[in-house]
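Read as amino acids, tokens; as here:

___
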Amino acid sequence: MKYFNYKDENLTSENMSIADIATEVQTPFYCYSANAFKNNFNALKNAFKEINPKICYATKSNSNLSILNLLQKEGAGADVVSVGELKKSLIAGIMPHDIVFSGVGKTSDEIEFAIINKIFQINAESTSELNTINKIAQKLGTLQQVGIRINPDVTGKTHENISTGGIGDKFGIPFSEVKNLFLNNEHFENIDISGIAFHIGSQIHDIEPFKKVFQKTGELIKEINKNKQIIKVLDIGGGFGVDYENNQKEFPIEEYAELVKNSFDTKNLTVVIEPGRSISWDTGILVTKVLYIKKHGEKKFIITDCGMNDLMRPALYDGYHKILPLAETKNTEKISTDIVGPICESTDRLFSSNEFYDVKEGDLLAILNSGAYGSSMSSNYNVRPLVDEILIDKDNYNIIRNRQSFEESIAQEIKINKN
């Protein structure tokens, strides 16, 4: 635990006791460390200092306005995949020239908003999308910078649900079609196709897949730029694996940065990276209360007040999150134990183990490493509210998202009255 540790037998972050916050804020709630975001971002920035890339934080991992603003002050741009993420990034103070718009299904309205706001680059994922961007830019009387997201048919060893670089994945333009799009694009009069982008997946711990895609893409860039420099922007995505289970080596980020420098002409290319999870993953916890404890024979269930609507990762792709009591204890019970939520789905299982702390009803638990894809994936399933988000900064904390009221959760619904 890097940013959340026991002090005087109480889980703390920076100079705040999480239990003290829980006396003032209703569980469940997300709790983040401002220092953690800053440290993670600047560690990444320092690893790439010789290249000096645009670091466009993947807002999908955690898009709270206060967090976006915090990272913007550290020098971050934004990688967005919807007009909502784009609008939030602008509101948070991120400059348009530091925003990249990715994603396979951008609507015409989203593309038009991006062009009007003069963002740095739109990454196109199909020839149809290139046509749409060109038409909209023509209508607006402007020239839009575009990157082509390639599908390199290279994948890392990761869960199939977060693999994005294989030929069977929906992302990117097939590698065989890319060269022609760069060299024969005169009919695209209102877009400047000058960037190349790729992203092969998330949670990749081994550097070997990156070596493969770098070699393949590097050779392609040399071919395309043989007579003149057509490709000027290189967006290498993200996907750096993090260690949720505390049993793997850290991703070799310095080695990766050196590989980028040795694989590409980084002096003549603007390099963009899109880290999300590697910045936000260990910055936060989800605090929950034990409601009930029951046993079915040799099976124990600890039922909490947070569920898969609050933290989707375990149900969606078996995401692992260690869980600790807020009050330190060494007392455990050796019995097959599931920590589950209140949602009416069997997949609403947060943690399973053959041994767990001997907690009591009413005790508070911390679900660790919930800063990435926790709050951003949460929903109102079972008509449950979106919960508070708390940001700790030294010896103070601020609520950066208020718990949703029932009335707010149904505010957009319309009851039709018929006689």
About this structure: DSSP finds twelve helices and 23 strands in the chain. The longest strand covers residues 284-296. The mean pLDDT is 93. The two ends are 60 Å apart (CA to CA).
